[in-house]
Amino acid sequence: MIDSATGTLTDAESAIAEAAGRCSNAGRWGADDVHGTLNFLTPDARVRAAALVRRGVTFSLAQSFDENGPQKGWRRRTNPVHTMTDTGTDAERGVQGFPHGIGGADDVVSMPLQCSTQWDGLGHIFDHGMAYNGRRAGDVVTSAGDAVTGIETAAALIAGRGVLLDVGRVVGGGELPDGFAITPDHLDATAAAHGVTVERGDIVCVRTGQLARARRDGWGDYAGGPAPGLSFTCAGWLHGREIAAIATDTWGFEVRPNEFADAFQPLHQVVIPHIGLYIGEMWDLDALATDCATEGGYAFFLTAAPIPFTGAVGAPVNPIAVK
Questions:
Q1: pLDDT over 70 for what percent of the chain?
Q2: Domains in the chain, ordered, with CATH?
Q3: Is the full-model pTM beyond 0.90?
Q4: Is 38 within 8 Å of 46 (Cβ atoms)?
């Protein structure tokens, strides 16, 4: 229901429970399944996706991983800390201990796994203590990590047909304002404007334009603050389209503030533990969007394998779109 005075959705608990039941994929691929909607991304789907490559032009959809990133400590998330452990200076001075003049450089990075362009894995979000496929959250993720649906289970799977829905351009004239809720009608209208269809097994990329604004105006609250994003009402669309995964250029995928006054990330609460949907966040879709608008073609081959940190519930990724 919608509160006529505030325009916000009401009765979050009932709405989440209803959507969870209606959109559940629990047991769909068997009791032991750990892949969720990645099951839609079949070998045949990848073969069809590979045929989309015409020009051999590539686009990295990753933001930078460095100290100038968007993080400022929300939920203990920080920007990467990059440290050199061996340098050219060490090599010049001959202090590395290698023979015959050979030298080298080495480095270390310390960072939260979801501080920049990344995937949310299936162990990232629970609903009332339950994880994807009807498992108890405590049986899936412990202090040792995700022993069931760890991000490594997806390491070889996320490659197929990518589809860009540039809602920012079609609906917002370039950028959507923070707090703008993208509805199923917006998604369908954008696909129609682009002349593209969303098919089973697709990796859908939704551009809002928020990242472009943050780069122009400064990070501000880009990581953890208000943002355009998908409406809670998109749960049925995401389930019914049978997509493999979805990614956005925002930190949290769904609209912020959330449409329920008393909820936190309710769409996450449905799509990860019930639909089993992989969510990509903080993807850089701007250069790809420009090419799609000028050269045409909003479907492309996309590979987006997460770094397979064993037991991780999310991981960095450098998605590559090939047109």
A1: 98
A2: 12-74+112-322 (3.50.30.50), 82-110 (no CATH)
A3: yes
A4: no
